[in-house]
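Quick question about two entries, pasted in order.
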Amino acid sequence: MPEGHTLHRLAGELTEAFGGHTISSGSPQGRFAGASALDGRLLDHAEAWGKHLFVDFGDVAEQVHIHLGLYGSFRIAAGVPEVIGQVRWRVSDGTTTADLRGPTACELLTPAEVETILDRLGPDPLRDDADAGAFIARVLRSRAAIATLLMDQSVIAGVGNVYRAEVLFRHGIDPFTPGRELPVPVLEAIWADLVLLMREGVRTGRIDTVRPEHEPEAMGRPPRQDDHGGEVYVYRRDGQPCWICGEPVLTRVVGARNLFWCPGCQP
């Protein structure tokens, strides 16, 4: 499932491509009933909150809410290409076209319905209006493991499996530590690091978490070969030696996803 940086990057791309433009809107697949109501409207901007994308049309009270889920994708291309496959929503200004395929959600929501979604979400490290204090307070109220809490979108929005594993490794934190047992300075450091890492993810479109001294060139090791891309410490490296201490990376299902950690660096 795409993590928060992907949605923020996509929001920027959609705004750059269509912001301030009158667009055609349709649902070739026929599964987005609200598409016709937006045809011929001016698209104002798109923005993300965690793993949720919202497209605003300015003079239309409703917004399009999109959650890509595990299989969704939003592809932007030049011109108006032929419709290929199951396109849930097509947006075009005649010069550029964006096709949405396979999302978990694509719906036209009233302001009250949008607010209901936002009320369920924790602060998003990539938003300027994010409240780090709310994240810290929610963690300190919980006996759940920090690895579980980082995947809870009501605690912190946008963090997924990769950022969870990597930020805990970078700070040497046992992923099974109860949230309430972590000192405030440690939680502040986790938040600040996620802001840094996820902003870099927006910039590059990939997740890189290794520090300069641990990059392939610095360590004389080959670059990572993985369809996920990006240089990481522990994610999807189960059984392989830790770059730092040499201990085999471990994995266990936590929060319905595979968690990866190093028992040597995260005692």
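Here is the second entry:
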Amino acid sequence: MYAEKKLLNVKNMILCALFVALIAIGAFIKIPVPVCPFTLQLLFTTLAGLLLGARLGFTAVIVYVAVGLIGIPVFTQGGGPSYVLQPTFGYLIGFAVGSYIVGILTEKIARPSLVRLLTANFINLLIVYLFGMIYVYAINEFYLNTPIGIWPLFLYCFVLAVPGDIVLCIVAAVLGRKLIPVVRK
């Protein structure tokens, strides 16, 4: 019983590793959209928070980011420490924070309703886009010296990308509704 309460027991380590792998796979399933490519990373980072809870979901995303930053090409455009200078790196930060928030909003309820899951997922989506868009703006403005206006930023980094991510939030909620009782046993 004591081992089950530990954050990183064998089951939790396996689940974290599974989600690290799924997030990496999700990075390579992409549809090219200007500036920010559409991938399945949001689906898997959201599911990490829903199924694993706040701490483990966050841990899985952070391990994924760490694996990419040490040089293993698991990000949509490669990997390595210089990836922090990519305009899309902010989305990775948003994935970690969003996964944590999704976990907080859903982990205390054994069988969260579909409405609660959708609400948590859409809050996660806003967090991811907030971090991502701020980072795109900052890197373009202060590092790349290619300033981007607010309207083009909103168009390319939100309007063009969000419809697919809304669908992913719905898919994650439906999957979460079915899988949460199984995974959290």
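Reply: The domain at 2-183 is CATH 1.10.1760.20 (Arp2/3 complex 21 kDa subunit ARPC3). The chain has a mean pLDDT of 92. Hope that helps.
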